[in-house]
Design a protein that fits this description.
This protein has two helices and 26 strands. It has 351 residues and is mainly beta. The protein has one domain: Tachylectin-2, Chain A (5 Propeller), CATH 2.115.10. Strands 19, 20, 21, 22 and 23 form a five-stranded antiparallel β-sheet that branches. Strands 1-26-25-24 form a four-stranded antiparallel β-sheet. The protein is globular and about 55 Å long. The relative contact order is 0.16. InterPro entries: Glyco_hydro_beta-prop_sf, Mannoside_phosphorylase.
């Protein structure tokens, strides 16, 4: 398989050991899947920080945020026959699924795009009923002077799409739940198309269909409709299990270039790789070309070994001419960086 990524020599650029826990008695286990942006001459990342309490090896815990903002814990013995472990990320007890960590967002800043300093306190944490199990994997899209964050809110209700906006990275306007469960991997285009805001997202359900990339439009950013399926998984290929959008599509003369993740079932779980879609400029529900082979796959040890290994997953990028500074989560543990050439990606696509 081909791999067009030129990985940073300094990878991982952010590790759990680099980040201060948000409270006493907690440990940071994952620092990954960052949104990316530029602000006041600096590079910024919105890093997902996953934490858990430091516990013994005889139990597993699930954490949630109560309505008054307090952290609540549920502990389960590893020897309880009602406990079924799915993987490092979640488990089932008495037919109910729980997650093993609680995620919030932390800002990280850099002057060169490679060496980042992570703030000591969360910039955003779960604050609504639909975020009681944490917030995850934000995409950042700048429209005009405003930055829009589309991210996953996790709760006992499921995974839904939340949205906030900011102009100063200090105060935020809350749009609430813009797409209900089960939905995630949502990202806005950075300009209106045919007079409407455009969003890619990934609904998921059981039965017919699958975890595919869809498009929707809005006139006010609150109400979304005109949903159209854009791309599906492909049997017996590297993206056969699920797919999802990455960062905001990049406008090129050839079309909108969207880097996306695809997963394939393997004996140890899933392998996550990256590919690209080329969408029509005037009708981004129409796919012009698509990667037959991934443009990036787990190769380095920090991508193959970790909290959940064999994963490269992106939801953050900064475009500088032909170069994409792509920030990605590796093995669900680290934040890493790589450079791509837009021209090379376009040349690799097949219609």
């Amino acid at each position: 398989m081909s791999d067009l990524a030129k990985r940073f020599a300094t990878n991982p650029i952010i590790s759990p050991r680099d980040v201060k826990p948000s409270r006493e008695g907690f440990e940071v286990v994952c620092t990954f899947n960052p949104g990316a942006f530029e602000f006041n001459g600096r590079f910024g990342l919105v890093v997902r920080v996953a934490e858990r309490r430091t516990t013994d090896n005889e139990s597993v815990e699930s954490l949630s945020i109560s309505r008054n903002g307090e952290i609540e814990f549920q502990s389960f013995s590893l020897t309880d026959p009602k406990l079924k472990s799915l993987d490092s990320r979640s488990f089932i007890y008495n037919d109910t699924e729980y997650i093993t960590t609680l995620s919030h967002f932390r800002l990280a800043w850099s002057s060169d795009g490679e060496k980042f300093s992570v703030e000591d306190s969360p910039i955003l944490s779960g604050s609504s009923d639909n975020e009681s199990f944490g917030i995850e994997d934000t995409r950042v899209t700048k429209i005009g002077s405003e930055y829009f964050l589309t991210y996953t809110g996790v709760s006992s209700n499921g995974y839904g799409v939340q949205m906030k906006s900011t102009t100063d990275w200090k105060t935020f306007e809350d749009f609430g739940t813009v797409l209900p469960p089960f939905n995630k991997d949502a990202v806005l285009f950075d300009e209106k198309i045919n007079g409407k805001y455009q969003m890619l997202h990934r609904p998921t359900g059981s039965g017919l269909g699958g975890p595919y990339i869809w498009s929707s439009t809005s006139t006010d950013l609150f109400h979304w409709g005109h949903h159209v399926c854009v791309a599906t998984t492909r049997p017996n290929m590297w993206d056969s299990a699920r797919i999802g959008a990455g960062s905001a599509p990049i406008k090129t003369e050839a079309g909108w270039l969207e880097i996306y993740h695809g997963a394939e079932v393997v004996p140890t779980g899933h392998t996550y790789r990256l590919g690209a879609l080329l969408l029509d400029l005037d009708d981004p529900t129409r796919v012009i070309a698509r990667s037959q082979e991934p443009i990036m796959e787990p190769r380095s040890n920090y991508e193959t070994d970790g909290f959940y290994g064999n994963v490269v997953f992106t939801n953050g990028q900064i475009v500088q001419g032909d170069e994409i500074l792509l920030y990605y989560g590796a093995a669900d543990t680290y934040t890493c960086g790589a450079r791509f050439s837009i021209k090379e990606i376009l040349n690799s696509l097949k219609s």
